[in-house]
Structures are given as structure tokens and as C-alpha cells.
Specification:
The structure is a single chain. The protein contains 10 helices and 10 strands. With 259 residues, the chain is of the alpha/beta class. The chain has a 6-stranded mixed β-sheet, sandwiched between helices. It is globular. The N terminus is likely disordered.
């Protein structure tokens, strides 16, 4: 495990967020250490993706504060956040590649928009990032010409184009078969190992959570109800944890089917 107890890179203090009457985050406290992979699990609608958006300051809390390297970021304006966001990479749930662009152009996009790299340097950087995800040679293809698993990997190459400190993964294995999912898991481990990135992985995939997570945090109704190592979750007797980990509906879920 990298980092000391004081080596916190991201911190949420008392963060609350609601949409109308729906409370999505409820006075959430969470500190993430540099170099660790933290996996966030929980049922749909428990605030996992909303949490990622608060970390990036794409969404602002109704109350509470968000810090990056000890500096508060939730109260900064968009111009002030440009430098902060350059230090993050984001793998979106559906990849979010530009269909009209080639793989080369997709991966180069963050470099073109957010760096001062000269155009002649971009092909070599893109090739390096694609090599990391095992796809060097596909530069001239378009997203529609490659598989779903390859699109996820191209999106991951784009997420690390600016050599970020932190990579955020929103449901990285969604829509992939178990073999392709494991390729993504291996890449998450590889990037942590080779780039020493801090990772936050939102997922429903408990197999993935066990494989990539140093720490797993479970959200329920906008609060952290469990926080520990993969082994903690394998042996937990908390019924809410067991129901999610074992993938079993509770009595209320089953009763609703009879209505």
C-alpha cells in the first residue's frame, strides 16, 4: 500500500447533494490516499457516479467541501479548475469516444486541447499510450470499426494521455463479457503499477472490485456503510453488504414482484 496515513490526495468533508426530495449524498466524509485504488460499490442510485462528479467539481455540493492536495476546489470557478482537471483522467461508462474521429485523434484530443505539445510530438505520445493498453497499430481506425472492449481501452488511453495523477473509472466493465472485463481489470492494475496513479473505481462488478481494489467503500442511501479491504467484504456478516456481494434480492424486492 502506497502513501502514509497523512498522504491524502482527495477529501470530501460533510458533502451532501440532493435532487428534489431525493438525497443522493448525505454528509459524506471520505479521504482517499495517494497511490491507492479505492473501489466504490453500492446499489443503483446510491450516489456513486455523483461522487465522481464531485471529485472533479463537475457537480457542486449543496453543503460540505471537496479538497484536492489540501486545496478546496468545490468553490473554484471553471477557469480556476482547468489546471486541477488536467491532473485527472476519466474513463466514462460508455467510453464517450468521438465517432467521427480516428483512434489517433481521440487519444490526442486532450493533448491538443489542454497541453502545449507541438503537433509533431503527438503521434509518438499517442503510440505510447496505445501501447500501454495493447492497441498500438489501431491509430487509423474509427470507433465503429473496433470492438466494445477495444473502445474501452482506447478511452482509457485517452484518459491517461496527459499522464494524470488520478484516474476515475465509471463502471469500467459494464457491457463487457467476463474475459474482456478481466482485461480492463488487468489494465487498471497495470496503470497503478507503472504510472503510480491514484484510482477511484465505481462499479457494480464485485469480481472486479475484489481484483483491483486496495480498499472498497460501500455507499447506501448516500452514506458510507462499509469500508475495508476485499477480505473484509468476503467475510462481512452485515446483511446489506452480504446482499450486494452475493447478488441476492431481499424480501421486499421479491414481495414487489407479487404486487
Amino acid at each position: 500500500m502506497n502513501g502514509s496515513n497523512n498522504d491524502v490526495i482527495i477529501e470530501l468533508r460533510g458533502v451532501s447533494k440532493r435532487f428534489g426530495s431525493l438525497v443522493v449524498l448525505d454528509k459524506l466524509d471520505l479521504a482517499l490516499k495517494k497511490g491507492m485504488t479505492t473501489v466504490v460499490i453500492g446499489e443503483s442510485g446510491t450516489g456513486k457516479s455523483v461522487l465522481l462528479k464531485h471529485i472533479l467539481a463537475l457537480m457542486r455540493p449543496d453543503s460540505g467541501e471537496v479538497y484536492f492536495h489540501g486545496r478546496r476546489i468545490d468553490n473554484k470557478n471553471e477557469r480556476e479548475l482547468v489546471d486541477v482537471r488536467r491532473r485527472f483522467g476519466m474513463l466514462f461508462q460508455l467510453g464517450a469516444l468521438f465517432d467521427s474521429m480516428t483512434v489517433q485523434e481521440n487519444v490526442a484530443f486532450p493533448l491538443t486541447e489542454h497541453s502545449d505539445k507541438p503537433p509533431e510530438d503527438l503521434p509518438a505520445i499517442v503510440a505510447q499510450k496505445l501501447k500501454m493498453v495493447g492497441l498500438d497499430g489501431l491509430q487509423n481506425r474509427h470507433p465503429g470499426e473496433i470492438s466494445g472492449g477495444q473502445r474501452k481501452r482506447v478511452a482509457l488511453a485517452r484518459a491517461i494521455a496527459l499522464s494524470p495523477e488520478v484516474v476515475l473509472y465509471d463502471e469500467p466493465t459494464t457491457g463487457l463479457d467476463p474475459v474482456r472485463s478481466d482485461v480492463i481489470n488487468e489494465l487498471i492494475l497495470k496503470l497503478r503499477r507503472e504510472l503510480d496513479v491514484t484510482s477511484v473505481v465505481v462499479t457494480h462488478d464485485i469480481t472486479s472490485a475484489y481484483k483491483v481494489g486496495d480498499r472498497i467503500v460501500m455507499l447506501h442511501h448516500g452514506k458510507v456503510i462499509a469500508d475495508g479491504s476485499p477480505e473484509f467484504y468476503r467475510t462481512s456478516s452485515d446483511p446489506r453488504v452480504r446482499r450486494f456481494v452475493d447478488g441476492k434480492a431481499d424480501a421486499r424486492d421479491l414481495a414487489a414482484l407479487d404486487d
